[in-house]
Amino acid sequence: MAFNTFQFILVFLPLVYIGFLLVHRVFGWAGVYPYLALASLAFYAQFSPVLAAILVGSVVLNFGAASAIRGLREGGRPAGWPTALAVAANIFALGYFKYTNFFIDITNSVGGTDFSHLNIIVPVGVSFFTFTQIGFLLESYSGQAGKVGFSKYALFATFFPVVTAGPLLLQREIFPQMEDRQGPAFSSVALSVGLTMFGIGLFKKVILADSIAPYADVAFDGVALGAGIDMLTAWVGSLAYTLQLYFDFSGYSDMAVGLGFVFGLKLPLNFNSPFKATSISDFWRRWHMTMTRFFTTYLYTPMAMTNTRKAMKGGYGPVHRWLVASAVPVTYTFLLAGIWHGAGWSFVVYGLVHGLALAVNHGWRHFKMTEIGRPAGWTLTMLVVVVGLVIFRAPDLSVAGTMLSGMFGLSALTGGADAFDMVKVDLFPALSMIAILGGIVMLSPNSQQILRTHWISCDEEDKSAPVHSSIRWQPTAVWALVAAVMMVLAFTSLGDNGNFLYYQF
Questions:
Q1: What is the mean pLDDT of residues 218-240?
Q2: What is the pLDDT, as a whole number, of residue 496?
Q3: What share of the chain is helix, strand, coil (3-state, %, to 5)?
Q4: Separation in Å, CA 357 to CA 12, 274, 362, 383
Q5: 163 with 128: CB under 8 angstroms?
């Protein structure tokens, strides 16, 4: 059950909200959290009861492990090995569900074996709820996470706005909001602001992302079937997918934050106008922000700090120091981030492309190279992003190679298909959609800026980008009409819409 379905919008969400109000009236906030945890499990069970049982098992085992780790630490006993084993168990489970068949392919390729794929159903959002709980284990070990009841932990790990595709939560963002909560559950402001945010996200997904998706599908699917592709069509397909993913993930992120706000929890932002970035580092501070935070906190920073101390102690020169303390850690981190997205060589190469681009970016600053200016920085950043997303979208590296060869006029060198077997896209509507959506990306404020008068996230408010008062949300009839029109347009397009793209990760 995805957010962009009649079942969710007209049945699940209203019933859960009514129950939320009734439970609060009878039991107060102490009853709300177990109720929302149960509602979240019911939401997840719509995908599969078996997968819901797996999620429950993950929650129970991780809660027990975190409690044991905290008990050992508070008792003055070493908790390093128990923590390592608990984290390893989570990674092993994630590896089994997501990567077993990929490892079988590698084994067959390298060893000449002929092992068959296992019939494994991958739980929706397994990477997200696994990493959220790994973060809690690590913060329990470090002493950052205190004692928490099971119902609150279960809600933290399964909250339905985030369980399928993030954002990745940190305990210090959520549990303080649950402690000693006062006041009513119902708030007209929270309801109107949260539903406006949800409506903006739904509009992005259903009207914008799903409308441009066919042009990307025609290009990539045509190449996958063996057709050739010319330069213009390759760029149209690549830019169409770039914008599809942008509005699909941006829409989901808006809807998640809006739903959290409706139910009294402020969630972290996961999307902050990443296509306005003027460096690849800036891009990753804006795109999938909580994933970047997780990998930076638990992989890049510890490795970079250790290697920096080693470089200082060893008296390394500038180039050696950059390689050891910056280039290697960031490349390794984003190689793993690429693999986190999925099982396949395309994801490996995608992570490597961004890791190497970040290494160059860090080196440029490290060696104090000449500033290239914002326009050039934006152009280079978007070139890396688009090339990376071609690899990300392609079903395999062969298709990615054909698409990239077409984009850069190298089809003849790679032996492309003849002129009678070429991908054909209706170019005028495709280019029109690309221009319109590109203009929205670059010229309009993002959702949290529009709703700045009622800051909707647990993140600190970003006041660096001023928004004109005429496009800042206010509790007025005009804004109610705008939100209503967006919702109606989105509703009329609901039906056979596909799942959010990040559901596959």
A1: 95
A2: 63
A3: 70, 0, 25
A4: 43, 16, 9, 11
A5: yes
Tell me, what's the pLDDT at 488?
86
Of the candidates 302, 298, 309, 346, the one whose C-alpha atom is nearest the C-alpha of residue 131 is 298
* CA-to-CA dists, residue 494 to 1, 10, 77, 498, 499, angstroms: 13, 12, 56, 10, 12
| Dihedral sign (CA 246, 251, 256, 262) | positive
Encode pLDDT of 27-51 as tens digits.
999 999 999 999 999 999 999 999 9
Tokens of 274: 């990443």
Q: Find tokens 């990493």 and name the residue.
A: 131
How does DSSP assign 446-491, residue by residue?
A: -HHHHTGGG--BSSPP--SS---GGGS--SSHHHHHHHHHHHHHHH
Active site residues: 341
Same domain, 173 and 197: no
CA dist 402 → 234, 347, 412 (Å): 9, 17, 10
- Max CA pair span of the chain: 74
Instruction: Judge if 20 and 161 occupy the same domain.
Output: yes
Instruction: Give the whole-angstrom CA distance, residue 505 versus residue 503.
Output: 5
Pairwise CA distance, residues 16 & 386, whole Å: 40
Read off the amino acid at residue 450: I
Residues whose CB is less than 8 angstroms from the CB of residue 411 and which lie 6 or more positions away in sequence, other chains included: 228, 229, 230, 231, 402, 405
Token pair of 334 as six digits: 């984003």
* 358-415 per-position pLDDT tens digit: 999 999 988 878 888 999 999 999 999 999 999 999 999 999 999 999 999 887 555 5
Cα 32 from Cα 451, distance rounded (Å): 26
Give per-residue pLDDT as tens, 148-198: 999 999 999 999 999 999 999 999 999 999 987 878 889 888 899 999 999
- Residue bearing the bigger pLDDT, 210 or 184: 210
CA 273 to chain centre: 14
CA 24, chain centre distance (Å): 31
**Which DSSP helix (H) or strand (E) runs through 155?**
helix 150-158
Which alpha helices (H) appear in 342-446, and where do they start and end? 345-366, 374-393, 397-407, 427-443
Query: Which tens digits make up the pLDDT trace of 436-482?
Result: 999 999 999 999 999 988 899 999 887 666 676 667 888 778 888 88
Are residues 151 and 108 both part of a single domain?
A: yes
Residue 287, phi then psi, degrees to nearest 5: -105, 130
Q: What is the pLDDT of residues 317-368, one digit of tens each?
A: 889 999 999 999 999 999 999 999 988 999 999 999 999 999 999 999 888 7
Task: Identify whether 32 is part of a domain.
Answer: yes
> Domain range holding 446?
187-275+427-505
Query: Which of 161, 183, 205 corresponds to the end of one domain?
Result: 183
Report pLDDT for 24.
95
Residue 319 lies in a domain: no
**Is residue 309 in a domain?**
no
